[in-house]
Specification:
By secondary structure, this protein is α/β, with parallel strands linked by helices. The chain is built from 7 helices and 12 strands. The structure holds zinc ion.
Length: about 250
């Protein structure tokens, strides 16, 4: 990412970087791609049919030929790295996630490198993007040093971090429609559509999160309706388009 000419709300100086807020854009993110691909193609067909766009968080160690072939048939997607193994390193009740500020830097960086290498070997990512598993980030200074251009966790503000020579954009999701992960139960469609309007009114965008292995049981009509609702009211962007805007 070149020096971004963004809307600057405020600037915070930290030890390792400067942090600025930036004008947000709406997007759809699909996480955990690779854990179970059974319903992924149905979901992507809904996205493609509606001329929507989605960013896929792919788990590197779950990539196989079947997934590669499947994804090569869709034009509505962009590729991002979702961790390395996506496994939890510490026992339940303690810090979650395979990445963390509390781990040694070299361990975070080793996992970043190995994961990105698999993504590049199997796909043609347009930019270096990281989606932290369990929303647990490695240190931002590591992402900057490793030339990542964008990361997407959970939150409600777009930010740009810079260490003086490099820039990274943070574009977090802010809406998860799953009410109960154990039961794979969504909130009612009407409630989700109102929540979409609420988060856009409050934060200026919706970053909508889906998991292919946590979709409503029977069919994807609800997802279809929600996707139609989002794109009829709020244009959704690929991360590459958001990064491009930041560069202008
Ligand atoms: Zn995940």
């Amino acid at each position: 990412m070149n020096k971004p000419n963004t809307t600057v709300y405020k600037e915070i100086h930290q030890k390792d970087f400067v942090e600025r807020e930036m004008q947000p854009s709406s997007f759809i993110r699909i996480d955990d791609v690779g854990i179970s691909n059974d319903r992924l193609s149905d979901l992507l067909e809904v996205i493609e049919k509606n001329s929507a766009k989605a960013i896929l968080g792919i788990i590197p160690t779950r990539v196989n030929e079947e997934l590669r072939d499947l994804l090569s048939t869709f034009k509505c997607i962009e590729i991002a790295q979702h961790g390395y193994t996506h496994s939890q390193l510490l026992p339940p009740g303690e810090e979650k996630g395979e990445f963390s500020e509390t781990l040694p830097i070299h361990e975070n960086e080793r996992r970043l490198d190995k994961g990105w290498e698999i993504i590049c070997r199997n796909f043609k990512p347009k930019h270096k993007t990281f989606i932290p598993p369990w929303h647990t980030l490695p240190p931002i200074k590591s992402l900057l040093q490793k030339n990542y251009e964008l990361f997407s966790s959970y939150g409600n503000k777009f930010k740009v971090y810079s260490n003086g020579s490099r820039y990274i954009l943070s574009a977090p999701v802010n809406l998860d429609p799953v009410k109960d992960y154990a039961l794979k139960k969504f909130y009612p469609t009407k409630a989700i559509c109102s929540s979409i309007d609420e988060v856009v009114a409050r934060y200026g965008y919706v970053g909508f999160l889906l998991h292919p292995n946590y979709l409503p049981e029977n069919n994807l009509n609800e997802i279809d309706q929600i996707i139609q609702y989002i794109i009829s009211k709020y244009p959704v962007s690929f991360f590459s388009e958001i990064l491009k805007e930041g560069k202008q």
